[in-house]
Fold:
Amino acid sequence: MKINFLNNTFDYKKNLKIQRVKKYIIIAGITIAISIFSNMIAKSDEITYDTKKNIVRQNQPNIKKCLSSPSISEIENTFKIIRIDINDVINSIKEEKEKNEIKIEKKLVAITFDDGPGIFTDRLLDILEENNAKATFFVTGTSVENYSNAVKRAYDLGNEIGIHGYTHTSFTELTIDKIQDEINKVSDLLTDLDITPSNLVRPPYGSIDNTIKENLDYSFILWYVDTRDWESLNKDAVKEQIRSNIEEGSIILMHDIHETTIDAVEEILPELIDEYEFVTVEELFKRNEQELEEHESYRKVKVLEKVEE
Ligand code: NI
Structure:
């Protein structure tokens, strides 16, 4: 009897030890899972800092319970609860966010980039994507030839491609036929890349007159905010130009061939994104219910008056 009893005691202790080891392995597993999940959340742009804090706060009791849990099955159950809870939190916050987005109407503006694409365009496209922003690119012939992948990517991402001219010669120095030729050559290059250019033209140097407007079947897009990025080649100066001149409905001029411009965009977009929505020129006019007419030039859109519901 005694021996049996001792054996039982021995087995019981051994079993306890195994249970304890199992418990630690599971706790380690849960910790790793939580940290991987937290990392995933931390990297997600969809989820705000407050949301991340909420998820941690909401799950603190579960995590505590889990760590002080006496049995493996209880730990496993708690782990399941944690996973379900985290998904619930994420879903409810996403729903809340979507509702809020419909409520808060942002001011629409159009950022435009001339003379590209260039070596920095891909980086710019990443930044636009990260900020849910769209832009309009007024491209030149040689740039399209040299950076066809970038212009194709810009188009595929939903940005608008307008025409700036094949050689970037001032339109006022050319005959109507020559200007048409400048536009057609770029248009053909884009069509070869399966890109449908919009009917928007930005005359090089903004040089345009009534004869040009009357004789060519395009809408001519000038600008309301001139960042003078080519002149300053300074990130902070570009940001300041945008900050102090931006207005609802404005068209902003930049050049994606300067690295300092891309640096400025990278910093200014997150700064303005709560107040402004960055859309293509076509979208800017469409959403303000204004036609982009041919033979006209534009600097900004006449902002549609908002009706309170
Ligand atoms: Ni230009």
In short: The radius of gyration is 29 Å. Confidence is low (pLDDT under 50) at residues 1-10.
